[in-house]
Amino acid sequence: MKKVGIIMGSDSDLPILRKTMDTLHALDIPYECHIYSAHRTPVEARDFALNARKNGFGVLIAAAGMAAHLAGAIAANTTLPVIGIPCKGPCFDGMDALLATVMMPTGIPVATVAVNGGANAALLAAQIIAVSDEALAQRLDAKRAADAAKVLEKDAALQKELNA
Ligand code: RP5
Predict the structure, then answer these.
(1) Under a CB-based contact definition with an 8 Å cutoff, are residues 110 and 38 in contact?
(2) Which stretches within 27-133 are classed as H helix?
(3) What is the pLDDT of residues 108-129, one digit of tens each?
(4) Closest atom of ligand 1 to CA, residue 38
(5) Is 62 in the pocket of ligand 1 (CB under 6 A)?
(6) In testing the pocket of ligand 1, which one of 13, 70, 101, 115 has its CB within 8 Å of the most ligand atoms?
(7) DSSP classification of residue 107
(8) pLDDT in tens, 137-155
């Protein structure tokens, strides 16, 4: 199976990427995780993206906050699918990172998930890989069914309480 590459702009983003790693781990998807910044280590970020396909990656996830150029800078150097996670910083409730990540110019797409959407980034990466991996597609179906069952259990408990 192709690996998922996870890149974060700073170790301060790590709590959000833990959700990404946990979700990939639960789905049995191999991944590598690195701290490379578009601004502080631009050479390493570029080299990682340039070599990602030949190094066995199938999807890249890039997370950054504030002037969040990382996902775009990664996408500029690969045609692998890139998923951006805007991370909430100290100002603007994450709107700064959301706009910086999502507003890519035509030709260099980044699939942007919600602010701090670490788990959804992993699930989207999994769904991309599952296009050509039936066993993974089945694990995703099972997770959807289990998640739905949990919601219905909560609904049943609520109905019981309201109708008591
Ligand atoms: C971004 O700047 C990082 O992705 C992080 O979200 C933000 C702040 O970084 P630190 O100053 O906490 O290292 O590049």
Answers:
(1) no
(2) 42-51, 70-75, 95-102, 118-130
(3) 999 999 999 999 999 999 999 9
(4) 14
(5) no
(6) 13
(7) T
(8) 999 999 999 999 999 999 9
